[in-house]
């Protein structure tokens, strides 16, 4: 059965937790696996755990259903209560997923997300995404940007700072409406550059992974 016509997977959310559980026996499992939504439990292979961002995105596209949270509003309120950074993280997550990127955790690189053009089994991530909520008490410093760009240069990636701005009249009932992403692209600038193209930013390309013999 095609995943678009298959019934949504029955997901479970426990209040206060920052992950959602989906059974791997659902008819949506092949879709979750190919598109890289969540991870299979290392102990119980019949459970797949998803982040709040993944779960909300999949619920809005009809791939999962949380019985205890039957409306998007209820889901948004519960997820925001569990993690107050959820609104800004989801806004960025949905933006890149809707553009066709495979969005994965960026914890390994000290950022929010990393973006893959194709399966992570085939290529390396091209972008490191740092999500910054403009209402946060944590300022976005040049020291942080310098650290990220130096790290990105070492691992052959580009830094994307995604500033999530809220409309002046925004409140939680509006959910993601009224939340806007402003993207800033940073890349290490070498001392040597081509004359006349000092400010040019080359297009990013996927780097294939080496195959193991």
From TrEMBL:
tRNA intron endonuclease catalytic domain: residues covered: 86-169
EC number(s) on file: 4.6.1.16
Keyword Nuclease listed: yes
GO biological process, one term: tRNA-type intron splice site recognition and cleavage
GO molecular function: nucleic acid binding; tRNA-intron lyase activity
Recorded superkingdom: Eukaryota
GO cellular component terms attached to this protein's record: cytoplasm; tRNA-intron endonuclease complex
UniProtKB keywords: Endonuclease, Hydrolase, Nuclease
Cross-referenced InterPro entries: tRNA_endonuc-like_dom_sf, tRNA_intron_Endo_cat-like_sf, tRNA_intron_Endonuc_cat-like, tRNA_splic
Keyword Hydrolase appears in the UniProt entry: yes
Reactions performed catalytically: pretRNA = a 3'-half-tRNA molecule with a 5'-OH end + a 5'-half-tRNA molecule with a 2',3'-cyclic phosphate end + an intron with a 2',3'-cyclic phosphate and a 5'-hydroxyl terminus
Coiled coil region boundaries: none
Family according to the record: Belongs to the tRNA-intron endonuclease family.
Protein name from the UniProt record: tRNA-intron lyase
Organism (species): Aphanomyces invadans
Lineage start: Eukaryota, Sar, Stramenopiles, Oomycota, Saprolegniomycetes
């Amino acid at each position: 059965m095609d995943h678009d016509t298959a019934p949504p997977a029955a997901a479970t959310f426990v209040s206060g937790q920052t992950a959602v559980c989906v059974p791997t026996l659902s008819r949506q499992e092949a879709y979750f696996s190919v598109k890289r939504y969540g991870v299979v439990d290392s102990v119980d292979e019949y459970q797949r755990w998803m982040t709040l961002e993944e779960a909300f995105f999949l619920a809005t596209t009809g791939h999962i259903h949380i019985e205890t949270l039957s409306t998007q509003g209820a889901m948004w309120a519960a997820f925001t209560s569990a993690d107050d950074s959820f609104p800004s993280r989801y806004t960025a997550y949905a933006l890149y997923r809707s553009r066709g990127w495979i969005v994965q955790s960026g914890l390994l690189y000290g950022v929010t997300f990393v973006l893959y053009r194709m399966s992570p089994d085939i290529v390396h991530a091209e972008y490191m995404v740092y999500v910054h909520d403009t209402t946060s008490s944590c300022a976005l410093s040049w020291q942080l940007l310098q650290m990220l760009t130096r790290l990105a240069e070492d691992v052959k990636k580009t830094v994307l700072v995604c500033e999530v701005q809220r409309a002046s009249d925004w409140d939680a009932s509006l959910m993601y409406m009224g939340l806007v992403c402003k993207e800033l692209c940073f890349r290490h600038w070498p001392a040597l550059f081509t004359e006349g193209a000092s400010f040019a930013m080359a297009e990013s390309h996927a780097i294939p992974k080496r195959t193991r013999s």
